[in-house]
Amino acid sequence: MTYNLKNSNPIDQNYQLGLLPQRNDPQAFYQDSSCRSNLAEFKLSSENRRILKKTGEFSCELVPIYYNLEIQKQIFQWLKVLKWDFPISSVKTVFTQHLFNYLYVWKKDNHIVGYSVCYFSLNISHIAYVFYDPEFSHLDLPIRLVLQFIIDSQQKNLQFAYLGRIANYKKNMPGYEYFSAGEWLK
């Protein structure tokens, strides 16, 4: 089911209803298996601390979202190697014509190895899309991208950090909750 922002709740309320923004239509939200981190329940587990320790060589910077030809080429190459079904036109839409307003730029040894496309408001955040160098796809970097986002959201005193669709690795995130039958469950 898709909802149109013009006829629906403000963005933050859509997330509270378990809705996720549609990739190619910045005005539309849809119902899916949504999950989040309740930041009032924030507590790093031993597994979270292990991920942080194992990925200490990576650094990130949170900046206002931007898009250029270098980002496009880099993501295009990564998508091709990873064999993800994510057209470059959709990448451009997500970066330039959507509600997302911040970008994590991840580096290792001064080389960009990943991007996380996010939405931040005064109360909530959402990590919507992650793109990363395939060299690190079987290591802990993809998990670190999400974990760092949650840590930063908690440090900003936000209420919830929305994580998108349910995935097994997200169940280990601090304050994990999922949306089912009209409510958020632990």
Provide structural commentary.
With 186 residues, the protein is an alpha+beta fold. The chain has one domain (2-185): Aminopeptidase. It is built from five helices and eleven strands; from the N terminus they run βαβββαβααβββαβββ. The strands form two sheets. It has an eight-stranded mixed beta sheet. It has a three-stranded antiparallel beta sheet with strand order 1-3-2. It is globular, with a radius of gyration of 16 Å. The two termini are 24 Å apart.
How do you describe this structure in short?
The protein has 186 residues and is α+β, with helices and mostly antiparallel strands. The protein has helices at residues 11-16, 46-54, 69-82, 88-96, 141-155, and strands at residues 2-4, 19-21, 28-31, 34-38, 58-64, 102-108, 111-120, 124-132, 160-165, 176-180, 183-185.
Given as residue ranges, the uncertain stretches (5+ residues, pLDDT < 50) are 1-9
Helix share bin: 25-40%
Cα(first) to Cα(last) distance is 24 Å
Number of helices: 5
Please state how the strands of the largest beta sheet are arranged side by side: 5-6-7-8-9-4-10-11
Instruction: Profile the largest sheet.
Output: 8 strands, mixed
> How many domains comprise the coordinates?
1
Assign the structural class, choosing from mainly alpha, mainly beta, alpha/beta, alpha+beta, or little secondary structure.
alpha+beta
Cα radius of gyration in angstroms: 16 Å
The CATH architecture classification is 3-Layer(aba) Sandwich
Query: Which term fits the overall shape?
Result: globular
Mean pLDDT: 93
Number of strands: 11
Oligomer: single chain
Order of helices and strands: EHEEEHEHHEEEHEEE
Beta-strand portion reads 25-35%
